Amino acid sequence: MLVADSGVVEMKLEQVVVPVSDVDRARHFYRALGFRLDRDEVVDGFRVVQLTPPGSACSILVGTNLGSGRPGSSSCALRVADLEEACAELRGHGAALGPVRASRVGFSDPDGNEWLLVGG
């Protein structure tokens, strides 16, 4: 058990479910953005695709029968050291980024799940 200095048990976020309507399309989209494919398997009728952003300890899960969220209902943030560099790389991979505002820029996956890149 990990305990922080305050005596509270330390917890680390490892996975977030991102609801999608088409698992293969989502897998292709996130792979094109550079997310590492950790697994793609069917277990007991559930298809689980685990993808991890470069440098992240937390993965996303897309698949079938992974929860009750409707496609496009997720919102996640990614912190990057160099926002301009990250924007250029993601645009190079086909992401449609919005305008940069206050060191932040948003984009969506094909289902409308929202992502926010945060510089710094």
TrEMBL record:
One of its GO terms (molecular function) is dioxygenase activity. It comes from the Bacteria. Gene3D superfamilies: 2,3-Dihydroxybiphenyl 1,2-Dioxygenase, domain 1. InterPro entries: Glyas_Bleomycin-R_OHBP_Dase, Glyas_Fos-R_dOase_dom, Glyoxalase_1_CS, VOC_core. Keywords: Dioxygenase, Lyase, Metal-binding, Oxidoreductase. The keyword Metal-binding applies. Residues 12-120 form the VOC domain. This is Catechol 2,3-dioxygenase-like lactoylglutathione lyase family enzyme. It comes from Kribbella jejuensis. The lineage of its organism: Bacteria, Bacillati, Actinomycetota, Actinomycetes, Propionibacteriales.
